[in-house]
Specification:
The structure holds two protein chains of two kinds. By secondary structure, chain A is mainly beta. Chain A has no helices and eleven strands. In chain A, about 35% of the residues are buried. The mean pLDDT of chain A is about 90. A five-stranded mixed beta sheet of chain B has the order 1-9-8-3-4, with no helix packed on it. A four-stranded antiparallel beta sheet of chain B has the order 2-7-6-5, with no helix packed on it. Chain B has no helices and nine strands. Classes of the chains: A mainly beta, B mainly beta.
């Protein structure tokens, strides 16, 4: 069964450093998403991406965040200068349009720890 | 904010059916009901979705009331591996395809041996 894959599974970084989280969406999907979950809290939407541009973003997705599809298969989330409060599980997801509803499928997540 | 209300937690005996309720009284006519689950901080796993008809797949059944203000997810024979947080999500579908999901706190289902 096709799946969304994410790397790394866990990353520890120092405050102020740049981090890039990588994702390979399901191959025939056209819409890509990032969500995050701070430990013990709800899953929160960050951003959605379609046709090489951001289609929707939340208040959390401020100027320190950026997304990119550098080639035909990868989708990345960059955090420019990490803060302690960026420590969270980051989930990549993808979907395709369809008449019955475009189900969003999630990866297993990248756990980011900022120290 | 999430447009759904779910019980905080439920228990179910192994092998029995688990019935997870969800209220979505403000649902609009073109909004779908989606169910996901999350097992111990893994990625949310899609279970099933529906608009107004009842739906069934290999994982579960979804029963939506006629007025669409509530629904029930049914796991027919719960196993220990079904222990997870279950999220009921109302999601609009415009045809544009990028409508995101708004997660609430969900229902923590514990399947008991």
């Amino acid at each position: 069964e096709p799946e969304v894959t994410q790397t790394p599974s866990h990353q520890v970084t120092q405050m102020g450093q740049e981090v890039i989280l990588r994702c390979v969406p399901i191959s025939n999907h056209l819409y890509f998403y990032w969500y995050r979950q701070i430990l013990g809290q709800k899953v929160e939407f960050l951003v959605s991406f379609y046709n090489n541009e951001i289609s929707e973003k939340s208040e959390i997705f401020d100027d320190q965040f950026s997304v990119e599809r550098p080639d035909g298969s990868n989708f990345t989330l960059k955090i420019r200068s990490t803060k302690l409060e960026d420590s969270a599980m980051y989930f990549c997801a993808s979907s395709e349009p369809g008449r019955s509803g475009n189900t969003i499928y999630f990866g297993e997540g990248s756990w980011l720890t900022v120290v | 904010d999430a447009k759904t209300t779910q019980p905080t937690s439920m228990d179910c005996a192994e092998g029995r059916a688990a019935n997870l309720p969800c209220n979505h009284s403000t649902i609009s006519g073109n909004e779908y009901v989606y169910w996901y689950r999350q097992i111990h901080s893994q990625g949310p796993q899609y279970i099933i979705h529906g608009l107004k008809n009842n739906e069934t797949n290999e994982m579960a059944s979804l029963i939506i009331t006629e007025d669409r203000k509530s629904s029930t997810l049914i796991l027919p024979h719960a196993t220990l591996r079904d222990t997870a947080v279950y999220y009921c999500i109302v999601r609009g579908y415009s045809g544009a395809g990028s409508y995101q999901l708004t997660f609430g706190k969900g229902t923590k289902l514990s399947v008991i041996p």
